[in-house]
TrEMBL record, chain A:
UniProt-listed InterPro entries: ExoRNase_PH_dom1, ExoRNase_PH_dom2, ExoRNase_PH_dom2_sf, Exosome_comp_Rrp42_subfam, PNPase/RNase_PH_dom_sf, Ribosomal_Su5_D2-typ_SF, Rrp45
Annotated protein name in UniProt: Exosome complex component RRP45
Family that this chain belongs to: Belongs to the RNase PH family.
Exoribonuclease phosphorolytic domain boundaries: 32-163, 189-253
CDD domains in the record: RNase_PH_RRP45 (cd11368)
Source organism of this protein record: Eudyptula minor (Little blue penguin)
GO cellular component, one term: nuclear exosome (RNase complex)
Location of the region described as Disordered in the Swiss-Prot/TrEMBL record: 336-441
Pfam families for this protein: RNase_PH, RNase_PH_C
UniProt biased composition (Basic residues): 429-441
Assigned keywords, A-Z: Cytoplasm, Exosome, Nucleus, RNA-binding, rRNA processing
Automatic annotation (TrEMBL), chain B:
Compartments reported by the entry: Cytoplasm; Nucleus, Nucleolus
Family: Belongs to the RRP40 family.
Organism taxonomic ancestry: Eukaryota, Metazoa, Chordata, Craniata, Vertebrata
Protein name: Exosome complex component RRP40
Signal sequence interval, chain numbering: none
Species in which this protein is naturally found: Eudyptula minor (Little blue penguin)
The gene coding this protein: EXOSC3
UniProt GO cellular component terms: cytoplasmic exosome (RNase complex); nuclear exosome (RNase complex); nucleolus
Highest taxon, organism lineage: Eukaryota
InterPro entries: Exosome_RNA_bind1/RRP40/RRP4, KH_dom_type_1, KH_dom_type_1_sf, NA-bd_OB-fold, RRP40_KH-I, Rrp40_S1
Length: 441, 193
């Protein structure tokens, strides 16, 4: 699928808003969105939510022979995937430029900073070492993937426990989690990336850009730092010219943000550790909150479908009798006469509104949807003063009219049946009532 | 997230089925629906619009009120158009028009340059389109604003200042998950400011 294009209207609005120092979610220029960290049942699995951007991280390990030029070091493997469910523009298996850039950033941030002690991953020098594999999946793209991914990566690595190993001479025994508690990885420091978006050739600066802001930005500066104020990686993309004091200012802001985020990570890890020790419930089922969709529950009116027939009868009897038919035939030529004025073709309208009803799947209020349809018909044919005189003139029994239309309805009904059962009978009553009302006018 | 539904194994249906009813966000073009489209290309006499469906819709330049071959509408790539579907089925590319059957525009056409466009779920738009929608009535008491609702889940808002527009956008997006009580409280807080 192609990504949704950015309209001129949005671009103009966002730039204007940035000039007035206003952001979409009501944030300030240097504010981060809410960071939420939740852990899964396994060690090494976590989901990080930065606003609506979601990244899932999973760490796994395996005993493999080491690389020939580094026989005493473990192997680290990082992989970031942009899932197609994250954004419409992402396709599976396509190496986009963005993906390559993100992967490189993660690698530089976590590997080159030497935050994980690879020597400790060695089991038998030259023969067996641990290969630690970190998989990051982007679940939802709402901007600033790199920050969320770096937080998820480092949290997962801190959370992970590898099986304990003992070496006796040539024998290597790997203990299962039941035999001996698994051992955490040895991590020296926690590098975290912070992104800065620049607008209007570097005049305006925003921290943690959202997806819309990323579309209109001129350039991006990413600084990876740990809480000891050491810069691990710095990258500027987009080709904007940055002045020295801008970069220094960004690094100061980064220091503050990283301190906050590191504290949050520590707290989250401690909480999870505590819950696991106490034997409480842990895992995603507990920590991912459920958001109630109120649109469902709010306006569902209970529709009593028991006495639909009687209600229909009532409506017919209450409805006004049809207006007087124009009984003055106009003679055009011998053999051709005209009674009444005729109305425009309303078949198109019927189909439209039927199809709209079939397309509806939500449990909306019956009355609301009914009135909606009323409005539709009124809008599209404002000139319809003369109603369906001709059919009424022919037969004064309105029942018959409904019967004629019903066979058309039936095939539509079977289609909607698979979609929403509970609306089935009420829809039928709807159509009956609607057609009667229209005819009765 | 949504409601879990269940259908018993009936006579015709093969086996029972469980599914989750959730707010739909992916739009499928339907004939007669009024939607907001973004112009992506101008190909000769026809504009290509993105409406959020699987295919781009086409819009002829003559399908505007008062448009003739000499008098073309001033549409650029990236503009927003509010129109309705003339043809929309799974076999053909959808076609849109900006006039109704009598040749009048009745509110359709190019949407103005200012204002902001954002996306919500389809259910929320249908709720907002219901007559006498409480949300819109309450919001209109807050500030005056212009609002265009597209059945494809896109909403365009314009208020006097950027701040007011942002507030309206945030409230509409939050209405998805807020109950009526919470919404009234939020609006009361805003009008108190």
């Amino acid at each position: 699928m192609k990504a949704t294009p950015l309209s001129n209207c949005e671009r103009r609005f966002l730039l204007r808003a940035i000039e007035e120092r206003k952001r979409l979610g009501g944030r300030q220029c240097y504010d981060y969105r809410n960071v939420r960290i939740s852990f899964g049942a396994d060690y090494g699995c976590c989901i990080v939510e930065l606003g609506k951007t979601r990244v899932l991280a999973q760490v796994s390990c395996e005993l493999v022979p080491p690389k020939p030029n580094r026989p005493t070091e473990g192997i680290l493997f990082f992989n970031l995937e942009l899932s197609p469910m994250a954004a419409p523009g992402f396709e599976p298996g396509r190496q986009s430029e963005l993906l390559v850039k993100l992967n490189r950033l993660i690698e530089r941030c976590l590997r080159n900073s030497k935050c994980i002690d690879t020597e400790s991953l060695c089991v038998v020098a030259g023969e067996k070492v641990w290969q630690i594999r970190l998989d990051l999946h982007l679940l939802n793209h709402d901007g600033n993937i790199i920050d969320a991914a770096s937080i998820a990566g480092i949290v997962a690595l801190c959370h992970f426990r590898r099986p304990d190993v003992s070496v006796q001479g040539e024998e290597v025994t790997v203990y299962t989690p039941e035999e001996r508690d698994p051992v955490p990885l040895s991590i020296h420091h926690m590098p975290i990336c912070v992104s800065f978006a620049f607008f209007q050739q570097g005049t305006y600066l925003l921290v943690d850009p959202s997806e819309r802001e990323e579309c209109v930005m001129d350039g991006l500066l990413v600084i990876a730092m740990n809480k000891h104020r050491e810069i691990c990686t710095i990258q500027s993309s987009g080709g904007i010219m940055l002045v020295q004091d801008q970069v220094l200012r960004c690094s100061k802001i980064t220091a503050v943000k990283v301190a906050e985020i590191t504290e949050l990570i520590q707290k989250a890890l401690e909480n999870d550790q505590k819950v696991r020790k106490e034997g409480g419930k842990f895992g995603f089922a507990e920590s991912i909150p459920n958001q109630k969709i109120t649109a469902f529950k709010m306006e569902s009116a209970a529709v009593d479908t028991n006495n639909v027939e009687e209600q229909a009868e009532e409506i017919i009897t209450k409805a006004d009798p049809p207006s007087e038919a124009f009984a003055k035939p106009i003679l055009h030529t011998p053999g051709t006469a005209q009674i009444g004025e005729g109305i425009e073709n309303s078949w198109g309208d019927l189909e439209e509104s039927e199809r709209e009803e079939a397309a509806e799947e939500e449990g909306e209020s019956e009355a609301a949807a009914f009135e909606c349809r009323e409005m539709e018909t009124e809008d599209t044919s404002t000139m319809r003063e003369t109603k369906k005189d001709e059919p009424i003139v022919l037969s004064d029994s309105e029942e018959e009219e409904v019967v004629i239309l019903e066979p058309q309805e039936l095939p539509k009904k079977t289609r909607t049946q698979t979609n929403s059962k509970q609306e089935n009978t009420s829809k039928k009553a709807f159509n009956k009532r609607r057609k009667k009302k229209r005819a009765a006018r | 997230c949504g409601l879990l539904r269940h259908r018993q194994a009936g006579g015709a249906a093969a086996g029972g089925a469980y599914w989750v009813d959730s707010q739909q966000k992916r739009y499928v073009p339907v004939k007669g629906d009024h939607v907001i489209g973004i112009v992506t290309a101008k190909a000769g006499d026809v504009f290509k619009l993105d409406v959020g469906g699987s295919e781009q819709a086409s819009l002829s330049y003559l399908a505007f009120e008062g448009a003739t071959k000499r008098n073309r509408p001033n549409v650029q790539v990236g503009d927003l158009i509010y129109g309705q579907f003339l043809v929309a089925n799974k076999d053909m590319e959808p076609e849109m028009v900006c006039i109704d059957s009598s040749g009048r525009s009745s509110g359709m056409g190019i949407i103005g340059q200012d204002g902001f466009l954002f996306k919500v779920s389809l259910g929320l738009v249908r709720k907002l389109l219901a007559p006498k929608c409480e949300i819109i009535q309450e919001l209109s008491q807050l500030y005056p604003f212009e609002l265009v609702l597209g059945m494809n889940g896109r909403i365009w808002v314009k208020a006097k200042t950027v701040q007011q527009t942002l507030i309206i956008v945030n409230i509409l997006e939050a209405c998805e998950y807020m109950t009526a009580e919470q919404r009234k409280q939020a609006l009361a807080r805003l009008s108190g400011n």
